[in-house]
Queue: 4 jobs
Job 1
Amino acid sequence: MNSGRCAACRYLRRRCAADCILSPYFPSNNPQRFVSVHKIYGASNVTKLLQQLPTHLRAEAADSLYFEAQCRVEDPVYGCVGLIFLLQQQIHDVEGQLAKTEAEIAVLKSQTQHPQAQQFEAESDFNNLLQQQLDNVANQSFSGFK
């Protein structure tokens, strides 16, 4: 144990035992970390959770609790789920842009290979390729929700 109390014991105004389970994950130099976790989960629940985990997983669990608590403080309704949804939406948007770009590249390649092709055919090919790519993206993006 380091000298003094950990952030958890300091916040809870109790003596920090040498075997304090919270001490390694909530050091005294970062009190806000424990305050956020305590506000969302409660000290007792965090202690019980960490005690049930193997020692090698506790640091990762404490980091996850802190991240999720911060997300919940910033967005009380959705928490980290809101962030996950936002990232999934961004992925879907970028996949659509990628499909459109790939369709444009395919049309440009076909135009360079067949310069005598009419503009109407190129536009038709582009629209068909674009629709196929967008259909593929939509099927891939929403296949996880079935």
Note: Residues 111 and 119 are 9 Å apart (CA to CA).
Job 2
Amino acid sequence: NKAVCRKDASNRKWISYCAETHALFCSVCLAFSKSDNLFVNGMKDWKHVHVRIEEHERSNAHEKKTHAFLLWSSRSGIAGLLKDNQMSARREQIKKKRLVLERIVDIIKVTGKWGLSYRGGFDSEAAYTLENTTADHRTFLELVLLLSKYDMCQKEHLTHCIEKSKTLHKAGGKGRGSLSSFLSKSTVNMRIDIICIIIQETIAEDVREAGIYSVQIDTTQDIMSKDQCSIILRYVTDIVHERLVALIDC
């Protein structure tokens, strides 16, 4: 164990041990070296193990193979595995996905601004049902369908999602599989949570700048006679602000 560690306590990750031959190997040299050396054939000089390891680590051969490994590692990502035409196609795909997601987020923001419910009956929320114009897909999906009539990017994405969902449904599959539709309740809820965090951070920054604030707590019952507690912050900048920061079930 001491041989694996340097004087600065960092590990020599290139060292590999073979229990069968009771020898040390250099994994970097094994992968990139075309010639033999002590740590390619297996180092068994345990009496001078520290000396041999330091000699190998300082050698030009090991240094060159380390550079080769780092160069290979930097190219082993997605960009390094794809050809130029594939990378261009991937960049275009990412660009389209971002444009679609921007429109989805705007629809979520508008729906929340109006105070409308996002989802509806579960029987009309699946992507393969969106071609049915007689069904009530509720606010979020109806706005998505409306926008797709006038936006080619949204229309292409929606058409792709519907066809993939229909194929998966006919095959008896459940869920979306590997399809990224951005239309599921999980996507909507995730974006709402993110927007909520951004709003809370903005309010917190305004309160810090105001310096003085008050907290108002009020409870009321919903239609199920269940108490809900609203927490409101009041503070003054150039005008008086009242901000609802939380709604808690009691």
Note: Residues 223 and 249 are 13 Å apart (CA to CA).
Job 3
Amino acid sequence: MKFSILVAVVLLALAQGSLAQDAALPDFQAITQQLEEMRTRLTQQLSSSGGDMASQAEQIQRQLATLGTQLQEKIATLTTQMQEHMTPMTESVQAQVQPLLAEMQKQMAAMWTKITEQRKAIEN
């Protein structure tokens, strides 16, 4: 698209330069014909580049769709692998923490009993 605009500017500059040489007797039919030719060329270039841009957009869209699918597959694989590693770790931590929690609960119960007994002794 930018290339087409650049071509149009160059063609206008060339037309301006050629018109400046014939400034003595301007031929309006020649000017009209040159402008018509430039318009035709620009229309052709824009239509051909527009088709190229559309095909490029479709190609990019296909590539992004493929990458999205690949990314989803990799994320699913990674999630499965993480779950396979985390499950044994979680079970191991639970196995280690359960006895500690049970022991802590026993100690808290013993402390509560001791505090209750001491309070009763103080009240009597």
Note: Helices lie at 2-21, 28-123.
Job 4
Amino acid sequence: MASTTTPTLHEDRVALVTEDDLLTPRFVEVLREIFERFDVNQDGFLNRNELKAFAEASTGKDFTEETLEVIAKLFLEKKYLPTPQLSFLGLQGMFLLQVKLNEAEVWADLERLGYDHQLESILVETADLKPLEEVEA
């Protein structure tokens, strides 16, 4: 009798990193979309308020001071300290490390940020939504 294996829950997920430990091109695209969504002032960096909004959207809570210190030491642009300023390159480094430490957590963050297991957006465009009054009329 041939044995069958039950597929794991993760087989349908696309890879986030390559065999060479680089972010995949699609994951970089998604990170760019996320970065631009939270770079409200469009200066090419995430400041403290933008980092806070990113943290709350991706994890449901703000970064702790300890987490901010780690981010500052590893990923922030040093010339912009003491004000936290995370560049897109810093965000990529942050996610690369997180994938290596806890990929399941990265997938949970991506889902909260509106991406499925194929890294496709599952966010509803607000322009497509009609006001409730129009729907009921």
Note: The beta strands are 45-46, 86-87.
